[in-house]
Amino acid sequence: MSGAENGLLELFDRLCEPFNGSNTIGNSRAFWVGAVVALAITFAYPLFVSAYQAGNTALFLLYGLLALSLSVVWGYAGVLSFGQVVFFGFAGYTFGIVSINFGSTLGTTLAIPVAVLVATAVAGLLGYFMFYGNVSGVFVAIITLVVTLVMQTFMAQTAGDEWTIGEVPLGGFNGMPGIPNLAVGVEGAALTFSGDIFYWLVLSTLVVAYFGLRALVNSRFGYAMVAVREDEDRVEMLGYDIRKVKLGVFTLGGALAGFSGVLYASWGNYIDPSVYSLTFATMPVVWVTVGGRESLLGGLVATVAIEWFRQQLSVTGSEWAMVVVGVLLLTIVLALPEGIIPYVHRKAVGALQQRGFVDPDRPATATEEAAE
Amino acid sequence: MTDGRLGRREFLGSSALVAGTALAGCAGGGGGTTGGSASSSDTIKIGVLEDRSGNFALVGTPKYNASMLAIEEINANGGIDGKQIETFAPDPQSDNQRYKELTRRAIEQEQVDVLWAGYSSATRETIRPTIDRHDQLYFYTTQYEGGVCDRNTFAVGPTARQQLGMVLPYLVDEFGPRIYTIAADYNFGQLSADWVRVLADENDAEVIGEEFIPLSETSFGSTINRIQEADPDFVMSMLVGANHTSFYEQKASSGLDVPIGTSTAMAQGYEHRRLEPPAMANIYAGVNYMEEIPTERNTSDGGFVDRYFEMFPDAPYLNEEAQTNYFSVYMYKQAVEQAGTTNQEEVKAALESGISYPAPEAPEGSEIRLDPETHHVHHHMWAMRADEDHNVEAVDDRVIEEQFLSNTVDCDLTQEDEETQYTPQDYFEEAG
Amino acid sequence: MVNAANLFFQFLDSFAFIVLSAIGLAIIFGMMDVINLAHGEFIMIGAYGTTLAANAGLPLPVAIAIGVVVTMVVGLILERTIIKRLYERPLDSMVATWAVGLALTQGARIAFGNSLSSIGVPFGAITYGEFSYSMYRVLLSGVAALVLVGAYLVFTRTEFGVRARATIQDADTAQAMGVETDRMYTTTFVIGSALAGLTGALYAPTMAIVPGMGSSFLVEAFVAVVTGGSSVLLGTTLAGGTLGSINALFSNLYGTFMGKIALLFVAVLILRFLPGGLSGVVTDLRERLERESV
C-alpha cells in the first residue's frame, strides 16, 4: 500500500478507536467499513421504497431506540427493567400535552426537551427509590413491572373532563389524539418532520445514540457498569458507589426511552395507555434477549426483525401467529443463549478464521493491546 | 473478536454480515405479501380489520364473520355495480399498535376503497387521525358512547343514548325511579353513566349511587354489598369485558336479584349462553340487535340467523355488532351504485343523500335510515329480557333517532366538515 | 359507615384471592428464583380443565381435581423440557416462560374457542339483614388457609420438605450432602403448577372462562410475592393478610378502584421501607427476641 493509503487507513482507525473495546462486538476495520456501507444503504432506503414502507420502518427504528435503552441498562449494568415503557409513555404523553397546549411550532420544539426531561426525572426518581433502597436483581424486574401495570390501570380511567392538563384531556382508555408532528424552530422558519424527513430523523437519532452508547460502554464508566453487572460486592470494595452507577445508567436509559416515546407520539400523532400494557412492557425484554443482551447492535437488529416479523404474521391473519412468535422466542432463548447477533458474529468470524482469511495471531491494535 | 488489520476477504465477510442483517430487517418493511396494489377497475377493495385473537376476539370474530357473509352474498349476486369485492382482512390481535400499522397499510399500500375497523373506542380513536389525514371512508360498527362528528367516519352502531334511552324509561315505568349505576372505569363507562344521569332527569328518575370499576377487576363482593345497602329499584350496568362478566355470576350466588338494565351485557358477549342460569335472570338489554330479536328478516327460514350459521356452523352466537357490520356493507353497496363510482368523496356524498336499508333489526316493512348530517343511524331499538332459564324475549321496541349530535350539538356534516368527538358533560348539567 | 360483617366477608374474599393467586408463583420463585411468567396461563389451564370436566357432567370436586392434575402434567412437561435448561439463568427463564404463556393462551383459543360455558357457583349465599355474601367465595378463604397450613406441614414435617428447604438455603451444600437438587426443582415446579391450577379450578365457577383469564390474577400474585419476602409461606400469609385487609377496607369505604390503588400503594411502601419483606420483619423480630432471651 502507498503512503497516502496508509495514512487514510490510520485516520480511519483513529476515528474508530473510541468506539472499539472488549465490551462490544465488531471492532475490526472490516466491521466498521461494513457498518458504513450498511448505514449508507439504510439512509438511502426511503428513496427506493414507498412512503408507507418508509413510515413503517421508521416505527421499527424508533422501537430500536427503546431497545437500546434497555440494552444499556440490562445488558451492560445488569438491571432488568420492565419499566422502560413507563418512561416511554410519560415522555409521549408530556410531549402531547405541551405541544397541543402551545399549539405552535415553537411549542412543539419546546415540548421535546420537556418531555425527555420528565422521562429522565421519572427514571431518576424510580431508580433512586429502588437502588438506594437496596432493591436488586429480580425484584427490580418485578417492581418495574408493577409500576407499569399501575400506570396502565391509572391512565385508563383518566377519561373524565377533570383529567385535563391545560387544554388537553388525558383521554383515559381512548388516548390522546391530535399530537402534532415533531418540529424544530418557530412559526414560519421551522422544519417539520414527517414522511421521509421523519425517517431520517429517527435513523439519525438512532445512529447518534448507538455511537454514543458504544463510546460510553467502552469508556471507564462502561467498565464500571459491566463490573457492577458481574460482581457487585467486588466493585464496592474497590471504592465505587454501585448505587450511583446503577442510578446513572438507569436515568440514562430513561432519557433514551423518553426520546423514543416522543418519536412514537409524533409518528402516530396519538398516544394511549396501551403503551403501559404487559405485552408492550415485555417487548423490549424480548427484543434485547433475542438480539443479544450484551450487544448494542444485537438489540437494534432484533427489534426491527422481530417487529417486522410480527407484523407480517398479523397481516396473514392466521390464528397461529401468536403461537409461532412464542415458539420462535422460546427456541432462541434455549438454543442461542447469548442472542442472535453475537452468535452469528462468532460463527462468522470462526468460519473465516478456519478458512485462513483471518490470522488469529495478527498483532492487535493499540487500543486492544492496552485493554489486555 | 479483536481483529487487527485484515485482508479484503474478511472485509467482504464482515460487511456482508452487518449489511445483510440491517437490510433483512428494513427491506421487508412492507414487502408485498399481498401484492399491495390498488383495486383494479374490475374489483372493489374492502378493508376489514377485526380482532380474531387477543382480548376482543370474542366480540370481534362475529364482526369479521358477518362482514364476510355480506361480501360473499354480494359477490354471489354480481358484486357492486358488476364489480367483485376483494378483501384485505388481517388480524389486528386486539392490539392498538397493530391497528395503527395495519390501517396505514390498508390505506397507503393496499389502497382500500372503504375500511371497517375496530371494536373498542380506543381503537377508533387510535386510527382516526390516520383516517382523517387520508380522508379515508371509514365505518365504525361497535356500540359506543356517541358524539363522533367526523366527515370520514360513519359510526353506524347504536350510541349509548339510544341504547340506554331504550331500556331506562321502560325500567322506570316497571320498577321505580331509584337507579344505581355500575360502569366500567374508562371513557365508555363514564360517558354512559353521564347519559344515565341525563336520561334519569328526562324521565323523572334519580341516580342514587354510582360506582366505577376498573377493567381488570374480578371481585365484586363489596360492589354487591353496596348495591344492597343502597336498595335501588333497578341497577344500570355498563360493565365491559370478560373480567366484569364475573359480576353476574357472583351476583347470582349472593342471591342479589334486583333488575338490571344494560347496554353492554348479553348482546355482545352472549353471557346468557355462557353463564349458568340464573346468573342473567332479570337482565334487560337495550340493543338494536341480538340473535333473539323477533323480526321476520332475522328469524324466518333463510333469514339472517340461518344464513349466518350456514356459513359459520361453529360460531357460538350472532351478536349485536355483527348485524351492524352486515348492513353497513349493504349500505356501502347502495351508495356506490348510487354514485356510480368508488371515488371516496362521491361515495360519502351518496351516503349523505339519505340511504336506508331493510336491516334484520327492523321489523318487516320498515327500514333503518342513515342520517346524512351526523353519519349515524336511526336504529330500531329493542328492550330484551332474560328470564331465570336464560330465555330471551323482547318486551318493548321502537325507533330511536340519534339525538345528541343532531339536536343538542348541531353537527351537520353536509354543511360543515368536522373531525371531533363531543361529550355530554359539555352540554348537560346533569352529566356533571 | 363501615358495616363490620360486610368488611369481614370482604376481607376473607380478598385474603383468599391474594393468597391463592400468589402461592404457586411464590413457591416456584422461592425455590428456584424463577419468575414464572406463564403463571397466569397455569391458572387458566386449571380453570379450563375444571370447566370442561364439569360441563361433561362430572361433579365439581372431581372436576377441580382434574383441573389440578392437568396443570401438574403441563407443568411437568414444561419443567423437563424448558425450565431445566435455564436453572442458572433466571432472567432468561422469565423470557422463556413469557413465550410459553403466549403460545398457551393462543393455543387455548385455537383449541377451545374464545370462551367456554361457565359452571355455576355452588352453595348459595350467607344472608345477614339486608346484605348477603357468596358462601363459596367466603369458603375459599378456608381453602387458602388449608393450602398454607398444608404447605407448611409438608415443608417442615416431611423429609422432602427438609430437603427442599436445604436446597433453598444453599443448593451447593445441599447437593454435596446428597440432595438431588434437580429432582427437588422438578418436584417444586410441579407443586407450584398444581397450586396455580388449583387456583384456576377454584375460581372457575365465579369467573368467565376465556383464554386470557389468567392475567387478572397476575398483579396480586406479583405484588404478594414481592412484599412477602424471602420466607415463602410466612410471606404469602402475611401478604395476604396485610394487603387483603387494606384492599377490603378501602374497597368498602371508597370503591373497588381505590381498593386496588391502596393495595398497590401499600405494597410500594413495604418494598421501600422493609427490604426483607413482611416475612423479614417477623424473622428479625424472632431473632431479636432470641438474642434478648439469651
Question: Could you outline the blueprint of secondary structure elements for this entry?
Answer:
The complex is a heterotrimer of chains A (372), B (432) and C (294).
Chain A: H1 3-16, H2 29-44, H3 51-76, H4 84-102, H5 105-131, H6 138-156, E1 164-165, E2 168-169, E3 176-177, E4 183-186, E5 189-192, H7 195-217, H8 220-230, H9 232-237, H10 242-268, E6 270-271, H11 278-291, H12 296-316, H13 321-335, H14 340-354, H15 366-371
Antiparallel strand pairs in A: 1-2, 3-6, 4-5
Chain B: H1 8-27, E1 43-49, H2 57-76, E2 84-88, H3 96-109, E3 114-117, H4 121-134, E4 138-140, E5 148-150, E6 153-155, H5 160-175, E7 178-184, H6 187-202, E8 206-213, H7 221-230, E9 234-238, H8 242-254, E10 260-262, H9 271-274, E11 283-287, H10 296-299, H11 304-311, H12 320-339, H13 344-351, E12 356-357, E13 368-370, E14 377-386, E15 392-400, H14 404-409, E16 419-421
Helix pairs in contact in B: 2-12, 3-4, 5-6, 12-13
Chain C: H1 4-32, H2 39-55, H3 60-81, H4 90-112, E1 125-128, E2 131-134, H5 135-157, H6 159-169, H7 171-176, H8 181-203, H9 215-228, H10 232-254, H11 256-273, H12 277-293
Antiparallel strand pairs in C: 1-2
Helix pairs in contact in C: 1-5, 1-8, 1-9, 1-10, 2-3, 2-4, 2-8, 2-9, 3-8, 5-6, 9-10, 9-11, 10-11, 10-12
Helix and strand succession of chain C?
HHHHEEHHHHHHHH
Unreliable sequence segments of chain C: none
Strand order of the largest sheet of chain C: 1-2
Give the structural class of chain B: alpha/beta
Count all strands of chain C and give the number.
2
- How far is the N terminus from the C terminus of chain B? 67 Å
Question: Low-confidence spans of chain B: pLDDT under 50, at least 5 residues?
Answer: 1-36
Largest β sheet strand count, sense and barrel closure of chain C: 2 strands, antiparallel
Mean pLDDT of chain B: 88
The rounded Rg of chain B comes to: 24 Å
Description:
The complex is a heterotrimer of chains A (372), B (432) and C (294). Chain A is built from 15 helices and 6 strands. Chain A is mainly α and 372 residues long. In chain A, the strands form 3 sheets. In chain A, strands 1-2 form a two-stranded antiparallel ribbon. In chain A, strands 3-6 form a two-stranded antiparallel ribbon. Chain A has a two-stranded antiparallel ribbon with strand order 4-5. Chain A starts with a helix and ends with a helix. Helices cover 40% and strands 19% of the residues of chain B. Chain B has 14 helices and 16 strands. Helix content of chain C is 77%, strand content 3%. The chains are: A mainly alpha (372), B alpha/beta (432), C mainly alpha (294). At the A-B interface, helix 2, helix 3, helix 12 and helix 14 of A face helix 1, helix 3, helix 4 and helix 6 of B.
